[in-house]
Amino acid sequence: MGKLICVDAGHGGTDSGAVGNGIKEKDIVLRTALKVGEMLKKQGFDVIFTRAADNYVNLGERCRIANFNSADLFVSIHINSAGNAQARGTETLCYSRNRFAEIVQKNLIGILKTKDRGIKERKDLAVLNGTKMTAILAELAFISNYDDASLLKKDLFLDDSAKALVKSVCEYLGVDFKDGEKTEEVLEMKKKIEVVINGKKDSIDGYFADGKNLFTADFLRKLGFDVGFDKNTKTVSVDNTDLKNIKVIVNGEEKEVPSVFRNDFNYIRLRDLEELGLIDLDYKDGVVYINSIK
After folding, report:
1. Is 159 helix (H, G, I), strand (E, B) or coil?
2. How big is the CA angle at 58 (ends 52 and 64), to the nearest 5 degrees?
């Protein structure tokens, strides 16, 4: 392919970048940058990093690395911050508006589903005015906003951020994006999955994908759960509060108590047995004491 992408993780080392809600910008962007680099290599691109560890690299050196190696694109990754804790969302910065910046912003918003803060021209930023190739700086989210910061703490969000950036590189350079998450290609039917329920061996139909056994709704029903599906909202509901009343004969007198039916058994609360006068119940220091009443 012959295309070289320079991936720039902002800040690092003694420069923490923005800090807020228990996280530091330098750590989040490095994790994301490494994910981007790995994904780019899988797409067939060559990759160089301005930093691949928690070390400080000045702005001039970052530009020098990209320019000296004649990178085809420069992708800088950052996290935003603001004095207003309500500010949130994703934006893409560039020296002057360009097609690559438009593609990056489109894919970031399309995949992350964050607030679209648009594309902003920033001629004052060193990594944008000091690089000779097309360059963008992605501000993924606001570390100063509680909800955005909660997203930044999740690996899935960083994975999606990396995917959006790599997909953008592919689209800009006219390369087909290969998504390694197409599970339907590796999904295979496994007719029988061995299980043990309450000590009893059984086997059920299921699927095997990505090294994991996937159980069907029928298996959940077999365990006593009520499984429903709303076709309009595409929502699966699992009800595990299958309560019903059962009759109990106490000293020849018929009583009724609530029970939960699971795995072909009715389960009754100990408190209800106590109220029926069958046991004396106590609880202390994490231990349940049961005494039968004769």
Report:
1. helix
2. 80
In the chain, which ranges are continuous DSSP H helix? 25-42, 59-68, 99-112, 126-129, 146-152, 155-173, 217-222, 270-275
Identify the pLDDT of residue 248.
75
How does residue 61 score in pLDDT terms, banded at 50, 70 and 90?
A: very high
Active site residue 38: no
In whole numbers, what is the pLDDT of the chain averaged over residues? 85
Judge contact between 71 and 133, C-beta under 8 A.
Answer: yes
**Residues sharing a CB contact under 8 Å with residue 278, sequence separation 6 or more, in sequence order:** 250, 292, 293
Other C-beta atoms lying within 10 Å of the C-beta of residue 221: 12
Domains, in order of start, for the chain:
4-173 (3.40.630.40), 183-239 (no CATH), 243-292 (no CATH)
Cα(94)–Cα(99) distance, integer angstroms: 10
| Under 8 Å between Cβ of 71 and 5 | yes
Q: How far apart are CA 209 and CA 185, in angstroms?
A: 9
Is the pLDDT confidence value at 291 over 70? yes
Q: Which of 38, 121, 139, 181 is catalytic?
A: 139
User: What is the C-alpha to C-alpha distance for residues 249 and 277, in angstroms, rounded to an integer?
Assistant: 12
Q: What six digits make up the tokens of 201? A: 């061996």
Parallel/antiparallel/unpaired status of strands 73-80 and 134-142: parallel
The tens digit of pLDDT for each residue in 12-34 reads 999 999 999 999 999 999 999 99
36: three-class secondary structure by DSSP: helix
pLDDT in tens, 87-120: 999 999 999 999 999 999 999 999 999 999 999 9
- Helix, strand, coil percent content, the chain, rounded in steps of 5: 30, 40, 30
Cβ-proximal residues to 70 (8 Å cutoff; 6+ apart), any chain: 4, 133
